[in-house]
Amino acid sequence: MKKLLEKMLAFLAKRVLNKYQPxxxxxxxxxxxxxxxxxxxxxxxxxxxxxxxxxxxxNELGVPITILGGESGGRSFLxxxxxxxxxxxxxxxxxxxxxxxLILEMGADHPGDIKYLTTLAxxxxxxxxxxxxxxxxxxxxxxxxYNEKKNIAxxxxxxxxxxxxxxxxxxxxLKSETKAKTLTYGFSEQADLRLYQLNEGxxxxxxxxxxxxxxxxxxxxxxxHLIAPFSLYSVLAAIAVxxxxxxxxxxxxxxxxxxxxxxxxxxxxxxxxxxxxxxDSYNASPVAVEKAVELLNDFSNAEYRKIFVLGDMLELGxxxxxxxxxxxxRLAESDIAVVITVGQLSTVIYDYLKKQGKKEVxxxxxxxxxxEFLADYxxxxxxxxxxxxxxVRMERISKFILAEHLDPKALLPRxxxxxxx
Length: 421
What we know:
It is a single chain. By secondary structure, this protein is of the alpha/beta class. The protein has two domains: about 1-255, UDP-N-acetylmuramoyl-L-alanine:D-glutamate ligase (3-Layer(aba) Sandwich), CATH 3.40.1190.10; about 265-420, Alpha-Beta Complex (Protein-Tyrosine Phosphatase, Chain A), CATH 3.90.190. Helices cover about 40% and strands about 20% of the residues. The strands form two sheets. A nine-stranded mixed β-sheet has the order 2-3-1-4-5-6-7-8-9, with helices on both faces. A six-stranded mixed β-sheet has the order 10-11-15-12-13-14, with helices on both faces. It is globular and about 65 Å long. The relative contact order is 0.10.
């Protein structure tokens, strides 16, 4: 049944795209897809009619649903019928308000996924954020992840634009493999759009300030709702997309002043008992966790006791223990005072840190048990960083730490009835 639905959605999506000819911006990567998608939306929304994926609609069903302008029917035949009917109406009759630009996040957990999605919705602009060790049980290796993700750029025509991260090891390789025009961003001197002179230390409370260098012109920025330098990759990608659309950098920066990362991604929130919470519970991969450790370690305010609450990193294939051990070593070298691990794989981290004997460490098999432990643990001056793969449900812990007067549904991921139950 799913295959039939997939074919029907693809059929209608292709016809709708052919009829309205919107410009398509495709975004993929192992980290930062959704954040980048939202940042691009902020830059373009004031000048164009723009539509982007809602929720996690980034697969073989979600992308055509976005093109057709519907929402998933879940398990309801009636709702799926409505999605298909609305798509048919968009094809047969003219919708004068159909978007001029579609911003399509494209996910991949199996080889061939990005090729399928870019065949369904060929892109005018392809954005590749990061390549990291995720979905390795299917992709097999980091090279396999790259070979899949690169399709976002290599399928482009010579009139298209490939926008990607100059700080990644594969950047030069991708530049040689795509026919499209290229625009790169990052900290590297080789980046076309370069981050420069970032503030450091107490940026958690001040936001992120710095300058961006482009064609010998330096432009200052301050994004008050971002706390981590690596969040700026999403912002830079959005500025680059703006440049392709003749939106100058100052205008893009102004559009991004109120930009916030999506729920569950580096959200600085008030916690119980005078604590602070960085909720990064949406998902986890080794690279993202190492960046999180780096961020927390670099935060220099001595008033806070740093506590890292980390769930298993899933979908790492045969190298899962190696990646957890690598994270353990990074944690051991940091000035993070307390580490709380959750799940089965993270026992590798707990055992390593326990043997080192330099930190206060705890381990729990389930996120609800960790939340129960914290009932009598949270103290004024605690700074909690919560992260883990979706399957570990670390948002349960964030919900417990969150200050009681705040609304979890407004601030945390996976708070709908279908998830909470």
